[in-house]
Amino acid sequence: MPLTYRVAHQQEINNILRTWRFPLYFSKPVMNHMVHFLDGVMTRGFSGTLTDIHRESCHSQDRRTLSHFLTHGKWNEQHLMRIIQQQSWESIKREAKHTQEPIFVIIDDTVCRKTKPSSQALSPMQGTDFHYSHTEGKSVWGHAVVQEFIRCGEKAFPYAFSRYESEQNSKIDIACELLSMVPKSSFSTYVLMDTWYPAQSVLETCALSGFHVISGIKTNRIIYPYGIRQSIKEFASHIHKEDTDLVTVGHASYHVYRYEGKLNFIENAVVLLCWDATQPMTLQTMRAFLSTDVSLSNEQILTYYSKRWAIETYFRTMKSNFSFNGYQIRSTVAIKRFWTLLSFTAMFCSVTGHGDILTGLRSWQNKKTESWIEFVYYEAKAGTQLDLIKNQLQAA
């Protein structure tokens, strides 16, 4: 008979899930799968496959039960998503109350690259298409996901996501939907985005929630300096170095020109035209930034915008440590559930790592190593047969 002992770190995971009231939403077998999923994903060297999860978590059930759990299991991933949002938001509110710093809601997208199947493939991965990858600078085959991330100070948490399908919806529509999920609060809240997202509908959604926007902005957007209608890049051609202020953010300095006034769809906002101080002031080296909070200084706007980098590091962490793009699942239902579970794992690591995903991940990896050593030690000390221990460790 195989051992049914649950090692210490798995029991600790299970206890945390219980404090988060998982038994109200999920059956005992579903919770068991979730514990093993978290354990397997948080293992060093996880490659994204269900085989890895089964092996590294020493799951006593057949490997195919994990596939069934994702594709046909009777559980609601929306309940899990709400728990992610609840735990992330409560953690961010505590940090904002403690530090009195603003809350940042960050929107961005990434591509999970996949191999394009041949025309003869009998069961290709569902929902794939060509998507532009900013990292690779070209269109690649795979899935695109729009992610919402929240941050306060040095603490950051995943909040929500949605898969992008060009035939079903736009990234702008998804961004509006994700932003509408964020609760209104008494804390100053800024939505950070790159140049793709500050469309009229996104700005209106943020305004309705009482959020300010700080974003990159395309240089063909229209402004009205001195009442004259012209694009940002047209206006920038008339700016000289003596018209700018030197602003330092972190270790970099920038020549910054501040425009405050009307834009299309906005009655009053700030647009910063910025050049790296180490480069010539040309249209090719200029970047423009939008802030709907006109009370902020140039330095504050650029410093706040730099907080957006947290979502880039999140994507890198998800792909390198949680193998976010390494899955080999075919159905869109299972993929959405897999992504939700990965997002939950990231939130779990962030919360238990005091706001830092990698700190939490390393802590659980160390706990896992220690608890398996303890398991082998005490079972051997109790006289358990070696074959049974090997079977539990799936080393037989």
UniProtKB/TrEMBL annotation:
Span of domain Transposase IS4-like: 102-345
InterPro entries, per database record: IS701-like, RNaseH-like_sf, Transposase_11
Domain of life according to the entry: Bacteria
SUPFAM superfamilies noted in UniProt: Ribonuclease H-like
Entry-linked PANTHER family: TRANSPOSASE (PTHR33627:SF1)
Name this protein carries in UniProt: IS701 family transposase
Gene source species: Aneurinibacillus thermoaerophilus
Top-level taxonomy: Bacteria, Bacillati, Bacillota, Bacilli, Bacillales
